[in-house]
Amino acid sequence: MTESPQQKLHVAFASAEAAPFVKTGGLGDVAGSLPQALKAAGAEVVVLVPKYDTIAQEYKDRMEHLCDFYVPLGWRNEYCGIERLNHRGVDYLFIDNERYFSRGYPYGFFDDGERFAFFSKAIVETLQHLPGVLKGFTCDVLHCNDWHTAMAPVFLREFYQASPFYQNIKTVFSIHNIAFQGQYSAKVLNDILGLAHIPAAAFQLTCGPDAVNYMQGALNYTDAITTVSPTYAEEIKTGEFGEGLDGILRRRAPILQGIVNGIDTVGFDPATDQRIPAQFTAGDRSGKAVCKARLQEELGLEVRDDRPLMVMVTRLTRQKGMDLVTYALDRILSGGVQVAVLGTGDTDYENALRYFEGKYPGTMAARIQFDPALSQRMYAGADLFLMPSLFEPCGLSQMIAMRYGTLPIVRETGGLKDTVAPYNQFTGEGTGFSFANFNGDEMADTVFRAAHLFWDDRAAFNKLVDNAMAADFSWTRSADVYMAMYHNLRPDIPLPQPEVEVKPTEKAKPVEQEKATEPEVAPADEPAATAVKKPAARKTTARKTTVAKATAPKTATTKATTTAAKTATSAPAAAAKPATANPAQAKIDLDAVLPTIDPKPAATPAAEPKPATSTTKVVPKATRRGKRK
């Protein structure tokens, strides 16, 4: 039996960029891949992205205009159009306002604070229009990413949650890089955000009285916080990595969770990748030897299979460990390891790499450029991949390298520690090599540990390659964790049932037939145990629970449990503050000088929501240039 639309979890995923439409970093990869995995896991997902003028015309030509309205922003009323494009089964909704988004680049403008405050407000306003234009899509969870969307949870709670339509919407905020927080002049608090009625300290604890911090606002208001790896989630609670937000994150630690990103395992597949000289698999890596020889030839290196080739595809910055690299390159190159680096960044690092290329011809190659095609060939042709980051929230390059049978050498920080299992010489286990301290000599020692394994024990080295290529870095695994988190926020919506779990329910008929001949078996116990004991268990258990409920007869135990569950989850939600909240009425948390927010999800009955009473006004598309009303 298929699920009714009301039973599906509806997720609105908001991001300032999404591949393939616009991408400047890892955030674009996440917004381009995770929503598809969530849909495959059973959620109904829409993605909200600004409609930048840099989006390729081929995508713009396929967009469908859904609706338009005005968005209140401080004393302004700004035009907002919604354009839809279905990509790989997911609806991407583009927020259209030419005044804010017709720029040559997504970020880096004097009015970014206003631009992305508008984007955040437009996200929340758009939600109430979706039931009428997207087949009854009613948002259950709003998932925001990085500072560009950080004000959406704040706006929702302060201006909208008094409306029945918004009362049951839960918010998730994901930190992809805590170093970028969105700090702007304190004047925007009233002039743009319209939030003069709440304590300014909700946005200013980390940046002083003359500025506001968008990310800090999200951390204080959201219902759940995620970041891109478990280790990074622990690191950002410390003063060393927290960038001033560590105190807030420690206070909100019960709702903070680290979930490792995935990669596009279809796009990054050496068995089918047409961008590399020869395809290969874990079982037949003869094509990888061809890729290595071609890469050495292309980069001007000696074509030798007996020398390990170590590559870097990176930004040339201190955060990526370039201090360690320039310090240790002499020792590494003179020791017989070939090195190739692709990337751009700080001029000092670029010049240092050029120097080593001249000093070690045939052994060192520096390509100071941005070249995605070459990066693909480097992933496929190298033996080792160096990633000695000072800090790394998650990192994708090390996972891509392993996918292509290239062993990573990483520093144990953030997502690098979570995704690379260090080589154990006694058991042969591991998927790469790692070192703990931000130290050039320690990094070089680890490089030579890998090189000597390549030279002295090729069988053990190849076993590591097998392990690396077998590692699962698909988005499916990550999506399952996100779905469990969404379910914790909205327990009134059952986890979806994958098709593979339907088969056990078909065997329920023989169980029913046994009741007449063997009453001692008490066949009702099994459904009752499934339905009663496991409603809050892990994802797969919860799904089987839903199946059992759908097919097994209700027993007295089941009914009693259902009644108790309804009683426990039907407490009416506390009345949310209206848009014109009185500052004196706001509850203050003296530890953080913030509005008090209950981190536990309120399991309000999922009544059919009614559209919010909105001050928005539908306007002709002719005003899409962002003229104020």
From TrEMBL:
Q: Which GO terms describe its biological process?
A: glycogen biosynthetic process
| Residue stretches spanning the membrane | none
**In which residue ranges is the amino acid composition biased (Basic and acidic residues)?**
503-518
Q: Which reaction(s) does its UniProt entry say it catalyses?
A: [(1->4)-alpha-D-glucosyl](n) + ADP-alpha-D-glucose = [(1->4)-alpha-D-glucosyl](n+1) + ADP + H(+)
Q: Where is this region: Disordered?
A: 503-583, 596-629
Name of the protein in its database record: Glycogen synthase
Please describe what this protein does.
Answer: Synthesizes alpha-1,4-glucan chains using ADP-glucose.
Q: Where is the composition biased (Low complexity)?
A: 519-534, 543-583, 599-617
Q: Keyword set for this entry?
A: Glycogen biosynthesis, Glycosyltransferase, Transferase
This entry's Enzyme Commission designation comes to 2.4.1.21
Q: Which GO terms describe its molecular function?
A: alpha-1,4-glucan glucosyltransferase (ADP-glucose donor) activity; alpha-1,4-glucan glucosyltransferase (UDP-glucose donor) activity
Alphabetized InterPro entries for the sequence: Glyco_trans_1, GS/SS, Starch_synth_cat_dom
Family of the protein in this entry: Belongs to the glycosyltransferase 1 family. Bacterial/plant glycogen synthase subfamily.
Q: Which residues form the Starch synthase catalytic domain?
A: 10-250
Give all residue intervals belonging to the Glycosyl transferase family domain. Answer: 303-447
Residues binding ADP-alpha-D-glucose are: K23
Pathway terms, separated by semicolons: Glycan biosynthesis; glycogen biosynthesis
